[in-house]
């Protein structure tokens, strides 16, 4: 077969496209735009195999503009200049529709080449990217475009596309098919929301399946050998990596051990144990903090164990750490205190340290008044005596506020008792 199956059965109308109902469903905004035939500059953002190229092709077929397709992974500035040179020619008398795939691979300078022409309407741009356009697309180009986010296709939405692919190949090969029960939903489940990946699995399945008496026997065991880890695409430098990490951290912070373990499993399946380890160590202070001060020692021991063990055994101490942190009492008093203090430092506050706190361990310090009025707290009951520690301009500031958990409230009561008596 000369062309991949995904290209051979690519939908030619919006109604044939699977998924993206939020964009192309009835009364959805992108559908209305396409049906109006007044196409603005657009950026399609989302994972691979979710219909970005398909919908761009459908839009191109409905316009009377000259269509040019450029893939930024292999194209350069000259390719863009070649497109620009067609403006006003007989071939492009109604303007140009440029489909720029993987725009994130173009440099700022290359993207700037398009600015003048999309601004005056000579070129209508439809760009696609698997990376967050707000990080990878030049701001001036972004401000002149409308961003549409494509989402992974659900298993339920994927099933009709898989059925269509199987029927198409059976017809091409002029054979019947015998499909094992549960096979189609299984293909959907291991495709990771990527329709192109599902099509590839179906295509390969026909190559490896046994067939006789003009019948192909499609079996789960063959799909399993083809799918393997295909259900999970992962780029440690891409958006998906940071989205999973963000979901992992927020699940831990939100005290949901089930969600935390699930997102940890995604990271482990990708072979990444460094990212969740760093994230859990950070949240010991950021999100658990003084509500359970021993958390950092426990998590550090579990993380160390994970690195000593390596995968697959590392999954056990990491899961233990995740469940532990998710079920720990929470306090953000530490991060609030240090962030507020850093903010004041950046604003230039508290430049002059009180004289009684300055270094007095050198000859002549007393003549400068450094450290002369310092009072040693350990000389007093409960190792406390009031004196001013903050600089004069911020002496009333409160950076640390006790959390409402048992540990911090116990500490607060202890110090309130001591300081109240001393300050009476």
Main structural class: alpha/beta
Number of helices: 20
CA-CA gap between termini: 90 Å
**Count of DSSP E strands?**
8
**Residue windows where pLDDT falls under 50 for at least 5 positions:** none
Main β-sheet, spatial strand arrangement: 2-3-4-1-5
β-strand amount: 5-15%
Question: Can you put this structure into words, describing what you see?
Answer:
By secondary structure, the protein is α/β, with parallel strands linked by helices. 49% of the residues lie in helices and 9% in strands. It contains 20 helices and eight strands. A five-stranded parallel β-sheet has the order 2-3-4-1-5, with helices on both faces. It has a three-stranded mixed β-sheet with strand order 6-8-7. The chain is flat. The chain starts with a helix and ends with a helix. The relative contact order is 0.07. The model has no long low-confidence stretch (mean pLDDT 88).
Write the layout of secondary structure elements.
Blueprint: H1 5-8, H2 21-24, H3 29-36, E1 42-45, H4 52-62, E2 66-71, H5 77-84, E3 96-101, H6 108-112, H7 115-119, E4 123-129, H8 133-136, H9 139-143, E5 146-149, H10 155-173, E6 176-179, H11 183-190, H12 195-208, E7 210-212, E8 215-218, H13 220-227, H14 239-253, H15 257-269, H16 274-288, H17 295-309, H18 315-327, H19 333-346, H20 406-423
Helix pairs in contact: 10-11, 10-12, 12-13, 14-15, 14-16, 15-18, 16-17, 16-18, 17-18
């Amino acid at each position: 077969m000369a062309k991949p199956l995904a290209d051979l059965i690519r939908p030619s109308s919006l109604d044939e496209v699977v998924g993206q109902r939020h964009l192309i469903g009835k009364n959805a905004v992108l559908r209305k735009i396409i049906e109006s035939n007044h196409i603005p500059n657009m950026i399609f953002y989302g994972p691979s195999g979710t219909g970005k190229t398909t919908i761009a092709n459908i839009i191109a077929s409905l316009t009377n503009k000259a269509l040019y397709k450029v893939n930024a992974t292999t194209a350069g500035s000259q390719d863009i200049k070649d497109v620009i040179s067609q403006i006003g020619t007989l071939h492009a008398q109604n303007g140009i529709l440029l489909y720029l795939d993987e725009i994130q691979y173009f440099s700022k300078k290359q993207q700037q080449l398009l600015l003048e022409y999309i601004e005056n309407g000579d070129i209508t741009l439809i760009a696609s990217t698997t990376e967050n356009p707000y990080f990878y697309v030049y701001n001036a180009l972004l401000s002149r475009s409308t961003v549409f986010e494509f989402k992974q296709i659900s298993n339920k939405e994927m099933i009709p596309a898989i059925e269509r692919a199987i029927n198409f190949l059976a017809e091409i090969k002029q054979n019947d098919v015998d499909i094992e029960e549960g096979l189609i939903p299984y293909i959907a489940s291991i495709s990771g929301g990527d329709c192109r990946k599902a099509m590839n699995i179906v295509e390969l399945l026909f190559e490896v399946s046994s067939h006789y008496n003009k019948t192909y026997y499609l079996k789960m065991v063959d799909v399993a050998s083809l799918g393997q880890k295909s259900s999970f695409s992962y780029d440690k430098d891409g958006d998906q990596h940071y989205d999973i990490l963000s979901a992992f951290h927020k699940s831990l912070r939100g005290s949901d051990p089930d969600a935390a373990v699930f997102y940890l499993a995604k990271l482990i399946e990708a072979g990444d144990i460094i990212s969740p380890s760093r994230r859990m160590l950070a949240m010991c202070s950021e999100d658990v903090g003084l509500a359970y001060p021993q958390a950092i020692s426990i998590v550090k021991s579990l993380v160390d164990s994970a690195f000593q063990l390596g995968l697959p055994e590392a999954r056990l101490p990491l899961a233990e750490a995740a469940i532990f942190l998710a079920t720990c009492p929470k306090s953000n008093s530490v991060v609030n205190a240090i962030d507020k203090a850093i903010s004041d430092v950046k604003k230039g506050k508290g430049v002059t340290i009180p004289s009684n706190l300055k270094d007095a361990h050198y000859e002549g310090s007393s003549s400068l008044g450094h450290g002369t009025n310092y009072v040693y707290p350990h000389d007093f009951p409960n190792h406390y005596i009031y004196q001013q520690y903050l600089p004069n301009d911020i002496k009333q500031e409160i950076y640390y506020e006790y959390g409402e958990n048992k540990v911090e409230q116990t500490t607060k009561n202890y110090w309130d008792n001591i300081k109240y008596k001393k300050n009476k």
